């Protein structure tokens, strides 16, 4: 096998002597993949390693890639992603991916954290109550998306306004107001989940603008797409780039 020195070094930083069974059964595939994902792709952009691992975790949840998630969670913890940050990634997936798809990831996360001697439950990160969740969630929406939120409420049909209220109180009020991750990181996670889900291009464009509003520029978003490419494949990566170019033309 001819895995590059850089790929071997970058892999070792994450996985600390972990040997994949695929090295024995599928050596040619591992050579190609590791050289691409752990060397060539890492040469693009300047995402901080912790951020890179967090977006990969978010992406694997959205992609329903449980086995890969467990492998990458080990790597994330090895390079300093905290248990609180991991939990917040998983929790944030619930409103975007759905509890039915996140359920197994919650249990897998708990098993891995407990195996490392981390006592659960972790310290709570909620900042809202049933009385304040709508108001605080709406404030976060407006802080990220601006006047667009007022327009969404104004243009909503009467029999659908409850969905807008759910977005404010539940998606943003219950989840996005939590501590443990800042808003810029949370928007990158949402971008990662939406591009990995596929079929969410209208929402993806909206969150591209949300990222821009928070200071995550096109270069950063291209870096996210590039780092996720080995995990989501070319069609979804190219769809994300098309959406990005539509929102932020060259």
Topology, pairings included?
Blueprint: H1 5-15, H2 22-25, H3 27-40, H4 49-62, H5 66-78, H6 83-97, H7 99-115, H8 133-145, H9 148-155, H10 161-176, H11 183-197, H12 201-214, H13 218-232, H14 234-247
Helix pairs in contact: 1-3, 4-5, 4-6, 4-11, 4-13, 5-7, 6-7, 6-10, 6-11, 8-10, 11-12, 11-13, 12-14, 13-14
List keywords for this structure.
mainly alpha, single chain, 73% helix, 250 residues
Could you provide a short overview of the structure?
This protein has 250 residues and is mainly α. 73% of the residues lie in helices and 0% in strands.
Question: How would you characterize the overall build of this protein?
Answer:
The radius of gyration is 19 Å and the shape is globular. The relative contact order is 0.12. With 250 residues, it is mainly alpha-helical. Helix 1 packs across helix 3, helix 4 (49-62) runs antiparallel to helix 5 and helix 11 (183-197) runs antiparallel to helix 12. The protein has helices at residues 5-15, 22-25, 27-40, 49-62, 66-78, 83-97, 99-115, 133-145, 148-155, 161-176, 183-197, 201-214, 218-232, 234-247. It starts with a helix and ends with a helix. The protein has 14 helices and no strands.
- Strands, total number: 0
Overall pLDDT confidence:
96
Largest sheet features: none
Order of helices and strands: HHHHHHHHHHHHHH
User: Tell me, what's the shape?
Assistant: globular
Extract low-pLDDT stretches.
none
Figure out the total of helices.
14
Q: Name the structural class.
A: mainly alpha
Radius of gyration: 19 Å
